[in-house]
Amino acid sequence: MNIGQASKASGVSAKMIRYYEQTGLIPAADRTASGYRDYSDTDVHMLRFIRRARDLGFAVAEISDLLGLWRDETRQSAEVKRLARGHIDALEQKIKGLQDMAHALTTLVNACQGDHRPHCPILQSLESDPEDEDLSVRGRPGAVARLSH
Q1: Where does this protein have coiled-coil stretches (predicted)?
Q2: How many CB atoms lie within 10 A of CB 117?
């Protein structure tokens, strides 16, 4: 099958298939007499494997390792589990970082009056030096504190 058919059958774009070939993640496809790429069912199966791994957030280097383990029938499942566990740890760190960012931004949004005045704690935080910034909300210098009732 040609690259378009392989793309449709695997769910991987033709551009990504060419990229995976170029980087060596997958072997170069056989070529027809007229020079077109010719993919087998085995190639499509491998592309589906890659697509599913990408859907789970694995990086290309990790997918390369997974492909190596997949092809190695003497592998130990412990190796696969270790790689997957490392990926879970990295995802959890990313989630924690995103939650921290969302919390900091929520704090700033809650501190912003969102009215006709120009003062904006969000912009003030963005302009401050990150080394000095703890993302706590501070009043504008010289501003009078607003009393809540």
Answers
A1: 81-108
A2: 9
